[in-house]
Amino acid sequence: MRAFSAFSFAPYARGGVGVALFLAISVFGCFKEPKLDVTQPRHCQSDKSCPYGYVCGPDGFCCASSDGKTCSGAVSTGGAGALVDGSLGDVASVDAPRPETGAGSGGARSEVEPAGGGAGGAAGSGGNLDAYGTGGGGQRDSGLDSPLGGEGGGSDGGGAGAIGSGGVTGTGGTNGSGGVVVTGGTNASGGVTGTGGIGTGGIGTGGIGTGGIGSGGTGTGGTTVTCGSSQKPCNGTCIPITSCCGGCGGNTPICDNGTCVGRPNGDACTPSAAAECLSGVCADGVCCNVTCDGQCEACNTTASKGTCVPTTTQRTPCTSDGSSCGGTCDGTAAHREACYYPPSSSVCGAASCNGTTKILTHARYCSGDGRCNAATTDPCPMGCATDGSAQCATSCPAGTYFCSNACVESTDLHCGADCLLCAGTSNPKCYNGTCVQCIDNSTCSTPNPVCNTSTHTCVQCTTDGNCASSTPRCVGNTCVQCTPATQSVDCPALGYGTGSTCSGDQCHCRGPSPGNLLQNPGFESSLSSWNLVSPSYVSHAGDDADSCVASGSAHVSAYGFEFGKVNQCVAVSGDHSYNFGYKYKQVATDPDALECILYFYQGGGCAGDDWTMLQIYSGAVPPIDNWGSKTTTVSPPTGTGSILVECQGVNFYDGWFDQVYLNGSGGYY
């Protein structure tokens, strides 16, 4: 639907002190042919006031309609303009047009297509309601001299009508000087579909004649531009499609195929305007693909501008004392973040020996941080080596002897600057002017038969080759049983059995797993932690299930009706399963010769009466005097708080128990 402007008039009396006039009725209508066949719009009070075939519409104008309810052919008025001077004019009948013409800047759009009104205009001095006006922003109807239509800009109206693509913004109306100040119409934007505002004329103080409603003054309308397929409209002109309308700026200063975008990598930039870069990064004066602040990387190289790459150029000078140890940028990806410095193994000064001063200057090495370490020196009491190497001589020339810090021609057995006599067992040898314990193994004897040539002292060993038998490994110049790295070889070889381990340079028998609830379950060196029943018939035996020389087992026997037993109480949970087992050896072929019994108690500490028990016989009989094993899964009754584990012989047979376990973590012994 399209909006029509209509006027409502309050009675006007000449000479009156106050005039109340308000214009606020919007009439909506849609119409087709026929159009009003008059040269000017005609006011009406009834259908009789209109020509044949027309009716008086709701807006007070004659229009073509058969039902009289909608004014589908009415001539729409231009928007009310503001008053120019508000001077008094004559009042004519509503049907008689007045000759005066008011100039307004922008009236409402005309509904007689394709013309539209301006964007609000000013009424002329003494202008009447039917006066002509030049509208601003809309195209005046070329087929009808509409008294309320206006001459404007774009063909579809720059005022109340939609502005053509890139149209010029319509100018708002000017308030009349004599009437109530009313805001002029809203200007149409210069965009593609901006809508021009409807200017409202002010009310003159002299009544309707003076300061009447301008019928569309002259305004600045929009401009419709039609462009070719390779162009597009921009502010009333055609530009190439690949161009950007109005130019680019801010954080998107670059025009890329008609779209304003950020600067591509490689474009010049400043750190304060990094947001202008597509990447958001400005490094080394160009837009960069990543943050590029490493010591040996740059983003502005000629070959890779805009991409951060390793470089041989130092961002800031690397530390250097001018020697070969100075830091550099080697251009590799591995060293792009920081300067590369030669390692401390790099020689930066050769060793030398001064035969005159008998001073040895050691080789100099890089510090690893850009400097060459200072030279260190040592005296050469016996002079420099005679083989051409930069070393001190280790002995005096033939026919001389080292004494008083020099090689002298003397047979005196003296050493050092004071020519001390080297004797005894603590320092019998002279080495480089000092009395030492040994120079080679020939000076040493048991129990320390080896000469440590670093300290020139006699020690037990310097390598495993110096050790043997029960202590085959050399640790800290001392022969020991084992090392953790060699325990699987050393300890079984020394009789500690399968699974033995090394700790503190000593071998140990295989120990229980962390989940075993029993204490001393392997009877390693005694029966401690176990209760003995009929102790006369229980003893600790040296026989071990793993044949470990440092462990043993529990030996049980019987006499009459008295049976030797060992037992131990452990706390358990009644809703948990346990692995139970033991190793055994017996002298009889009876499969029930040995057993372990589990007594279940509701409370802790195996107190009170047990409420159930489980007998676990050895079962299969291994060869006599050989070890066998028994294992099973135990699920205590719900509510069990403790279990008494008791192992014994049956039917008066001797037996041995070892490596007993009750393990709740899924493991075994």
Descriptive account of the structure:
The chain has 669 residues and is mainly β. The chain contains one helix and 41 strands. The strands form 17 sheets. It has a five-stranded antiparallel beta sheet with strand order 30-35-40-37-38, with no helix packed on it. A five-stranded antiparallel beta sheet has the order 31-32-41-36-39, with no helix packed on it. A three-stranded antiparallel beta sheet has the order 16-17-19, with no helix packed on it. A hairpin with a 2-residue loop joins strand 33 (558-559) and strand 34 (562-563). The two termini are 95 Å apart. The model is unreliable at 1-40 and 66-222 (pLDDT under 50).
Summarize the structure.
The chain has 669 residues and is mainly beta.
Radius of gyration: 58 Å
End-to-end distance, in Å?
95 Å
Task: Going across the biggest sheet, name each strand in turn.
Answer: 30-35-40-37-38
Number of helices: 1
Largest sheet: 5 strands, antiparallel
Helix percentage: under 10%
Q: What is the global morphology?
A: flat
Structure classification: mainly beta
Which terms summarize this structure?
41 strands, 1 helix, single chain, five-stranded antiparallel β-sheet, mainly beta, 1% helix, 23% strand, disordered N terminus
